[in-house]
Amino acid sequence: MPTPTTTLENSSTATSGPTTMWALQYGGPHITKWAEVPTPQIHDTTDTIVRVDMTTICGSDVHILKGDVPEVTVGRILGHEAVGTVEEIGTGVRGPQGR
Ligand SMILES: [Zn+2]
Questions:
Q1: When comparing pLDDT for 13 and 92, which is higher?
Q2: From the CA of 10, how far away is ligand 1's center (Å)?
Q3: Is the pTM of this model over 0.70?
Q4: Ligand 1 center to 77 CA (angstroms)
């Protein structure tokens, strides 16, 4: 796995934390790249931001990386099998972590 050449600390702000993060992006069939992307923000009331603590690959990743999933276009951030820590929730989120 390639290692980013800069760190999150390089793009941090002193008061609100990092404004960017590293993400693995789809670059076309059999192509992936690490890219510095904006950190996620709450846009909709039902959004939740989860910091990924552990992840794994899924069988569908194999199909995506082969280019067999046309819905996944160049630039899509990859990864969908993860567990993590809830960092922020929208005002409409209900349940154990919500209101
Ligand atoms: Zn999956």
A1: 92
A2: 32
A3: no
A4: 14
